[in-house]
Design brief:
The complex is a heterodimer of chains A (about 575) and B (about 100). Chain A is of the alpha/beta class and about 575 residues long. Chain A has 22 helices and 18 strands. In chain A, about 45% of the residues lie in helices and about 15% in strands. Chain A is globular, with a radius of gyration of 27 Å. The longest helix of chain B has 13 residues. Chain B is globular. The chains are: A alpha/beta (about 575), B alpha+beta (about 100).
C-alpha cells in the first residue's frame, strides 16, 4: 500500500490523525402505496409529526449547549418546516386520495426538494440537506425505523458523503477527531458546525472520498484542505510535530493575548479590533485588542425608518471611546450604498452597486447626513484624540471636499460653544485602485491610510468574491495586489503617514511576513483573530519579513506567492525544531 | 381591495432557512392571504406563509419581490413583510469581513 493524498476544501482548521469511520446512513424510500383508511393514516401522520417535533426540540437544546444559540437556530427552522401549512395540506390531500401517510409525506416533501435543487445558488442549494434531514426524520417515524446515529466507541475520523446538521450535533464529541465529506463547501452546515465545535474538517472531496476505507489510518489537515490515507513515516512524523506545534501556539496565543505584539528584533505593532456593533466592544479587551481599528458605523444607519440624530450618535460614539480609552477608536463614516437598505434615503436601484454611489460618494451627495455624523463624532471626541476614516475615496477632490467639510463643522461647533475633540486625524480607506495609485498625492492631505484589502482585491482583479465563478480569482495574494500595497505604503511613508490594514488579509498568518515586510504600521481584524495574529508577529523578525516580502514581489502568480510563503513561514521551519 | 408593494432583497446569501422561515412566520401572524412573487426570476405568486415554499423558490440577493395581501389586515401585512426584508431580517450586513475563523 502506498500513501494517497486527496484534496478538498479546508472547512475548519486543525489537524487530526486517526482511523476512518464510514457513516453511511440508509435513505428511507417508500413505494407509492395505498394506505389503510383515511382516519388511520391521518392519525399516523399526526403521531409521526409530534414525535419528530419532540426530537427536533431536543436537538435544538443539545445544539445550543454544544455549539451555541446561533448555530442551533437551524433546528427552529426545521421545526417550522414540519408545520408548513401548504405542505400539510398537500399531504392530507394525498391521504384522502387513499395514499399511505408515508408515501404521501415523501411525495409532497420531494416537490420542495426538487424545486430547491434547481436554484442556481450554491448557498441555497446546500439547504437541500436541511429539507432531507426533516423529510427523513418523519419518514423514519412513519416506517418505524430507528435513527442510525454515529455509533463511535473510540476516537475516529468521520467520513461521509454528506452530514446532516442533526447527525453532527448528535455525534459523540469526545470521539470525533475530524469530519471529511464528499459534498459541501465553506458555507455548508458541516463547515459551520465543525468550526463551532472546534473539530478539523475537509469538505468537497467528491468521489475521491471513496478511497478512504473503514479502519484505515488517515491524516486530516483542516488548514490546507488535505486528506492523506495510509500516511508513510515521513508524513506521520511531520503531522505529529505540526499538531503539537499548533496546539502549543494556540495555548501560547491565548495566554499572551494581553501582551504587546513585538517582533523578535523589537518592532512592536498595535493589533486592534474591527467592530460593527456596540455590543462587540466587550470582545475588544477580552481578546487582547488594543482599541478599535475599524468601527463600521453602518449599524446606526441601516434597518430603520429615519436617520439617526446627532445626539443619539454622539452618545454611542462617546461610550465606545470611553470603553477602550486610552486606546483609540477609528470611526469609519457610514458606508452605505444602493445594496443596503436605508429607507429614509430612498436610494435608486443600481445595476452595479459595487461601482455605484456608496461610501463617501453617498455622503457627499447627502451632505446633511454626513454633516450630522461629523458633528456627533467631533463632539463625542471632546477631550480626546479622534480618528475619522472615510470609505470609498477615489480622488483628490473628494479628500479636499471632506477636509473642508470637517473644518466647517469644527468651526460651526466652536461658534456654538461646543466642546470638541482635541486633535483630529483624518484617514482614508485605500480600497479603490485609483486611490492606491494616487497615494503620494493623497498622502499630502490625510494623516493615515487604512488598507481595505477585500474590496481592493475585488476592484483590482475585477472579480466578485461572492460570485462562485470568480471567487477563486479574487485572491489577495495576487502579485498585482502586493505591488499596489508596496506602492501605497512607500508613498505614505515618504510623507511620514501611518498605514493600517483592516481587511481580512490582516488576520491571515500566511500574509503576515508580507504585511510586516512591506511596512504596515498597525493591524486591525475580527477580535477573535487578534491573539493568533499577535503570536504570529512575535515569531518573526522585521528583517526576515522584509526579505520575504521582497522575494514575493518578484513572483508571477498568487499560487507562487502562497507556496513560497508556505516554505518560509516559521510555522514550517525554524520553530519546528524548537 | 388588495394591497401590494415591491422590495429588493439585499440579504447576502439569498433567503436561506432562517430568513425564509422568519418571513413565513411573520406572514402567518396575519389573517390576510399573502403572496410573494419573484419579479426578477419571473416566478408565479406563491403562498408567503409556507416556509418551504419561500425557501425553495430560491430568492437571491438583488431579486425584486412583489408582496401582495388581501384581507382585513392587508395593508399592515404588506408593510410589515416589506420592512422585514428591507431590514435584512434584523441582521447587520457584513461588508468587510465574513465569519472569522481562528484556532482559539
Amino acid at each position: 500500500m502506498s500513501e494517497k493524498r486527496i484534496r478538498g476544501i479546508a472547512a475548519s482548521p486543525g489537524i487530526a490523525l486517526g482511523p476512518v469511520y464510514r457513516y453511511e446512513p440508509s435513505q428511507i424510500k417508500v413505494e407509492v402505496e395505498r394506505g389503510q383508511d383515511v382516519a388511520t393514516e391521518l392519525a399516523r401522520l399526526e403521531a409521526a409529526l409530534t414525535a419528530a417535533r419532540q426530537e427536533i426540540r431536543l436537538l435544538a437544546e443539545e445544539a445550543g449547549r454544544a455549539v451555541g444559540p446561533k448555530e442551533a437556530a437551524i433546528f427552529s427552522a426545521h421545526e417550522l418546516f414540519l408545520q408548513d401549512p401548504e405542505l400539510l395540506q398537500q399531504v392530507q390531500e394525498r391521504i384522502r386520495h387513499q395514499q399511505s401517510a408515508a408515501s404521501a409525506w415523501q411525495a409532497a416533501f420531494q416537490h420542495y426538494i426538487q424545486q430547491l435543487q434547481t436554484v442556481q445558488n450554491e448557498y441555497l442549494q446546500a439547504r437541500v440537506l436541511d429539507l432531507e434531514d426533516v423529510a427523513q426524520r418523519v419518514l423514519r417515524h412513519l416506517t418505524g425505523q430507528a435513527e442510525e446515529g454515529l455509533q463511535l466507541s473510540e476516537p475516529a475520523i468521520i467520513v461521509a458523503r454528506e452530514l446532516t446538521p442533526s447527525a453532527i450535533v448528535r455525534c459523540p464529541r469526545e470521539h470525533v477527531l475530524a469530519f471529511c465529506t464528499a459534498q459541501g463547501g465553506p458555507t455548508s452546515h458541516v463547515a459551520i458546525l465543525a468550526r463551532a465545535l472546534g473539530v478539523p474538517a475537509v469538505v468537497g472531496l467528491g468521489d475521491n472520498l471513496e478511497v478512504l476505507r473503514p479502519g484505515q489510518v488517515v491524516i486530516v489537515d483542516g488548514e490546507q484542505g488535505l486528506v492523506i490515507a495510509e500516511p508513510e513515516a515521513e508524513a506521520l512524523a511531520h503531522y505529529h510535530r505540526q499538531t503539537q506545534w499548533l496546539q502549543r501556539q494556540a495555548n501560547l496565543a491565548a495566554e499572551t493575548r494581553q501582551q504587546p505584539a513585538c517582533t523578535r528584533d523589537g518592532r512592536c505593532y498595535p493589533v486592534r479590533a474591527n467592530i460593527q456593533a456596540p455590543e462587540e466592544v466587550a470582545d475588544v479587551r477580552a481578546f487582547g485588542a488594543e482599541g478599535i481599528g475599524l468601527l463600521r458605523t453602518e449599524f446606526l444607519f441601516l434597518d430603520r425608518q429615519q436617520a439617526p440624530g446627532e445626539e443619539e450618535q454622539r452618545e454611542i460614539y462617546r461610550t465606545l471611546i470611553e470603553a477602550v480609552h486610552p486606546a483609540p477608536v477609528v470611526f469609519r463614516t457610514f458606508d452605505i450604498g444602493g445594496d443596503k437598505p436605508a429607507p429614509y434615503l430612498s436610494l435608486p436601484r443600481e445595476s452595479n452597486p459595487f461601482l455605484g454611489v456608496r461610501g463617501i460618494r453617498l455622503g457627499l451627495k447627502h451632505l446633511p447626513l454626513l454633516r450630522t455624523q461629523l458633528r456627533a463624532l467631533l463632539r463625542a471626541g471632546a477631550g480626546h484624540e479622534l480618528r475619522i476614516l472615510f470609505p470609498m475615496v477615489s480622488s483628490y477632490e473628494e479628500v479636499e471636499a471632506l477636509r473642508r467639510l470637517v473644518h466647517e463643522v469644527e468651526e460651526e461647533l466652536r461658534q456654538q460653544g461646543q466642546a470638541l475633540a482635541e486633535r483630529v486625524e483624518l484617514g482614508i480607506m485605500i480600497e479603490v485602485p485609483a486611490a492606491a495609485l494616487l497615494a503620494d498625492a493623497l498622502a499630502e492631505v490625510v494623516d493615515f491610510f487604512s488598507l481595505g484589502t477585500n474590496d481592493l482585491t475585488q476592484y483590482v482583479l475585477a472579480a466578485d468574491r461572492t460570485n462562485e465563478g470568480t471567487a477563486s480569482l479574487a485572491d489577495p495574494f495576487h502579485p498585482a495586489i502586493l505591488r499596489l500595497l508596496q506602492l501605497t505604503i512607500e508613498a505614505a511613508h515618504r510623507r511620514q503617514r501611518r498605514v493600517e490594514i483592516c481587511g481580512e488579509l490582516a488576520s491571515e498568518p500566511l500574509a503576515l511576513p508580507l504585511l510586516l515586510g512591506l511596512g504596515i504600521d498597525e493591524l486591525s481584524m475580527a477580535p477573535r483573530a487578534v491573539p493568533r495574529c499577535k503570536q504570529a508577529i512575535r515569531r518573526w523578525t522585521l528583517s526576515d519579513a522584509q526579505r520575504v516580502a521582497q522575494q514575493a514581489l518578484h513572483l508571477r502568480t498568487a499560487a507562487e506567492v502562497r507556496s513560497y510563503l508556505h516554505t518560509c513561514s516559521p510555522d514550517e521551519s525554524s520553530s519546528f525544531e524548537e | 381591495m388588495a394591497a401590494s408593494t415591491e422590495v429588493v432583497v439585499a440579504y447576502r446569501d439569498g433567503l436561506h432557512a432562517r430568513p425564509a422561515t422568519l418571513l413565513a412566520k411573520t406572514a402567518a401572524a396575519f389573517s390576510s392571504t399573502i403572496t410573494i412573487e419573484n419579479l426578477t426570476q419571473g416566478s408565479k405568486p406563491v403562498n408567503a406563509k409556507s416556509p418551504l415554499t419561500v425557501l425553495s423558490i430560491g430568492i437571491q440577493r438583488h431579486d425584486r419581490l412583489r408582496i401582495a395581501a388581501e384581507g382585513a389586515d392587508e395593508q399592515e401585512a404588506v408593510e410589515t413583510i416589506a420592512r422585514l426584508i428591507a431590514s435584512n431580517f434584523g441582521e447587520a450586513e457584513e461588508d468587510e469581513q465574513q465569519e472569522q475563523v481562528s484556532n482559539e
